[in-house]
Amino acid sequence: MSRNRPTIYDIAKLANTSTATVSRVLNDTGYPVKEELKKRVIKAAKELNYTPNLVGRHLKTSKSNDIGVIVPSISNPYYSLLVNGVENVARKRGYNILLCNSHRDPQREKDYLESLYQKQVEGIIISSITSDTEYIKKLQINGLKIAAFDQDIDLDCNKVNFDYYRGGCIAAQYLIDRGHRDIGFISAPLTRYSRKELFRGFADTLKINNIAIKKDLIKISEFEEETEDQTYEYKNGKQLVQQIIKKGNIPSAIFCINDMTAFGVIQGLQKNHIQIPQDVSVMGFDNITISEIINPSLTTIDQCTHEMGSLAAEVLINNIEDENKKYISTMLQPTLVVRNSTK
After folding, report:
1. Do the Cβ atoms of 173 and 336 come closer than 8 Å?
2. What are phi and psi for residue 97, nearest 5 degrees?
3. Exposed (0-12), middle (13-18) or buried (19+): which is 60, by Cβ within 10 Å?
4. Contact by Cβ (8 Å): 22, 12
């Protein structure tokens, strides 16, 4: 036996047969092999702890069974839920995922697209943060299958999206129905489709209810960047609510762009001895797992996160396995989740 990793030559020698026969048995080609010989080959492979050379298999079959997944941030648990949904479906259907974190950087996103394409992945699922889709279109022309989730994208491909506008409407109406009129809004830059639509739904609902938007209660950061010590959204929530506190005009309720931002807002308020929800109601958006664990538990909008990842994987794999499949565009709907952070 070879001193290095065992090969089909080692198996052939131990089973006293040819390498061609070993290859036929291990790759299950359907070529007729006597049952006794087949068992002998399998037994030899197990004794040698043989593992197939996936690179070699890929070169022969031109199929990698790999799917690329690109998300803006792995530090936000929301994206962990998304990826978990993708992975569950992918594994069940015999595919592996290669996860890439673009760190909210459009150039890094493009670099990952190029790298995944060079690795000859079967397709890519992407939450894109750039409006420039020309490079992705070129990859599509070259045969790469694309599915977009979380963010809308100007591209003819499979899409699994969410009704962010309606989510913003539901959140604002819930707070209004609880008697709130001074409602703040705290967010990262409105540079993404999801954030723009969420704020638009929030603002439109206030307008419909004849409630003026008070500019000093709307805090939207000018830039965003991932840091090693803290999750950006959490840190941003703490910083922006501090600006509201310093002004002294504290609203009765604050709606946050996502749950992680809401956690930062809650901590910022509590450090200034402002009680939630007795003094200020705080509402998030996402319904990540931690939102139920923190104290007070967070009222939020459920975004069907795991389902979004699962559906994105399903439509992409269906497209990979049947090129004649038509593109699917799905819009998931929001659900209000009432907990203890609002009154």
Report:
1. no
2. -115, 145
3. exposed
4. yes
